[in-house]
Amino acid sequence: MRSPVPLPRLHIITDTRPDADPVGVVEAALEAGARLVQVRGEDRYTDRLTFDLSRTIARLCREAGAVCLVNDAVHVAMAVGADGVHLGADDLPADAARAILPETAIVGATCRDPHEARAARRVGATYLGVGPVRASGTKTALKRIIGLDGMGAVAGAVDLPVIAIGGLDADLAAECVENGAHGVAVVSAVSRAADVKAAVGELLHAVGERAGTPAGAV
Ligand SMILES: Cc1ncc(COP(=O)(O)OP(=O)(O)O)c(N)n1
Ligand SMILES: Cc1ncsc1CCOP(=O)(O)O
Ligand SMILES: [Mg+2]
Does the pTM of the predicted model rise above 0.90? Predict the structure, then answer.
């Protein structure tokens, strides 16, 4: 694993629904200047399927100079040399993951409110994935929509970068950043776009990131 800071503002999450083309979409997104991909498999994804997809995406990211994170599966992230992981309430705690990951690993943690955010900070999260800001067609079994206000409350409570998630398009992405988010994570806004490269360009513009230039890079 490399040391891939600063954290890019646009996180592209793979769409692994049966009718999706995760590798093709990631290739186009990287060509359009996206600089972070999170590999996320649907519930039906076995370790082997997650490993196969992650190995391919990690290679594409390395070739493009982009960051690769793996959702949930810390062992898969390590096996493919990804740059880090994203973890939620049903996954390994961030400190347990940190104990086995390389020192430079990025560890994202899902939070819905300032209390969870402060707890994630204490156990060593690098960034917070905060949502759902809106209802999501990708993940329908979501407990509570927190809205822009809920996301902004988390961003105001901790000094970690907040990546807003859930039902976002370019317009909402811009509003998330106006309300304190460092950036956004999306599935459908890119994978279901008629023109993936154009969608990535619009999202990069919305979050204030130049194509291929992570936030803070010189
Ligand atoms: C950036 C980002 N934020 C939140 C999530 C959701 O993670 P989690 O709550 O663990 O749910 P699953 O994605 O595992 O279904 C995320 N993946 N990325
Ligand atoms: C993994 C996850 N966690 C909260 S919403 C979501 C899915 C986001 O997908 P979309 O951008 O298509 O709403
Ligand atoms: Mg998870």
Answer: yes
